[in-house]
Structures are given as C-alpha cells and as structure tokens.
Amino acid sequence: MRKLLILPFMTVLLSIGTSCSSDDENTNQSDTELAKESAAIEVAESFDFDLVLDVEDLNFSRDFTEEDSISKNGCVVVTTQTTNGGFPKTYTLDFGTGCTSPRGITRTGIIEITLTDMLRNPGAVATVERRNYTINGRGLSGLVTYTNTSTSTSIQWNRNVSNGSFTSLNGSVFNFNSDVDTRLIQGAGTLTRTDDVVELFMGNRTVSRPNGSSLTITISQPLLKPYTCANITQGVLDFNGTVLQGSLDYGSGACDNQAVYTTVTGNTINITL
C-alpha cells in the first residue's frame, strides 16, 4: 500500500473540481489535501505493520532476507517484556531523535507493540501505540489493533484504527478512523516476504479536518498489493467526499502505474499514479 491514492486524487480533483467561487475553490483544495493525506496515512500504516511482523520474527532464529527488518536496522533500540518468558510480549521500539532504515524510512519517537500470541495464529491480537512518533516527517498517533481472523483456508487480519491523528509535513492536522480486512493470498508457505501478495478485501477509512470537511474511501473490489510492486495492481476504490464522487480502478493485475477514474456521471479519466 505504499503509494495508495496520492496522485490519482490530485489529478482527478484538478480535472473535475472546477468552480468560479472562492468558497468552491477552498472546498476543492480541502478535498485534495484530505485525499493526499489519506494516502500518506495508508503508507504509514503499511510500513508500521511491517514492524509488527518484524517483532514477531524476533521469536524465530533464522536469517532475515527483508532489507528493512529490525535485525538490520541498527539505530533502533528494542526492549522486550514478557510474562514468564511467554505471551503476552511487549516490544518497545525507540527510534530516538531520528533513525533511518535501510529502505529509507525515517522514524522518531517510540512505538510499543504488544502481542497476545504469534500474530499468524488465529485469534492473536497485536496492539500498536505510538509516543511522540513521526514517520518520514509526519506525526502519527492513535490506537491500532490487529486481530487474526484466519480461517482454515486463509491467513487474514482485521486492522482497526481508533482516534487516529496525523500531522502533515506542512503542519495540518487530520483525524481518522479505519477498519480494513486483509489477507495473505501468496507467500504463506515461505520464510521470506518477497513472494508475498496481500489482498485488502473489505473496509473503509474516514479522514476529517478540524473544520468538519471529510472524505470516506471504501474498498468496493479487493485490492492486490504484491510485496515486489510499488503500486496496487488490481482492485477498485469508491470515493465519497465534499467534491470527490466516483471510483478508481487499478486494473487487472499488471504491475504498472496506470488506473482509470470514473465519475458518478460515467465520464472516465486515465490516471498515471
């Protein structure tokens, strides 16, 4: 989910959100910024889920192949608290005043991750709390809960974010809540993540500004995100905001930067991500 929604929203809004009044122009700018920062929130949450999987991997004695794993990130200080050596386990990751991972992700502050069990086990819960935390210069807070909802045929999690707050690079503050269901549809049988494909198959996020404007993004057709591709390769999102009304189709599986936006009136616009 690294590049979800940023340029499509910007391009679509500039194409369809025209107005002669200053009030409408302000509304367009508001929705544009909401869309952009919603995309940045998704990127931040996806990077932090990598940390959750990394702390789970600390329970194994094995080589890490992922370039961004905690074991290869020497500037983060990890403290572990356990109950008689078992679960629940709490991992405190202290990034200090600045810690840049091999993949180029810069974090400051502290993340505390608590696991009730190995996260790949059905019913396991991971909670994530952040203290004075930033990622790539953006502030991020709120309680995140990952719950393993796996079935006999699928490894999957529900991600719920409550009372989320996000501070953009220019200092704007956004509040958000989200509830998204994801599952691993490829790569479950290996110890690396390079062959993983994650499907976001249900859920939505609502992002709002202190002035009351908001944007809701809903998954209408499952999104596919291979670990090795920088973009979503398939799926459809529905947009419902002050100005933005329509859907974005990411295509049928090719790893490219193309998508098609369709307005509620049926007009289509080719989008380069």
TrEMBL record:
Region forming the signal peptide: 1-21
Keyword entries, A-Z: Signal
PROSITE patterns found in the cross-reference section: PROKAR_LIPOPROTEIN
Protein's recorded name: Lipoprotein
Species assigned in the record: Nonlabens tegetincola
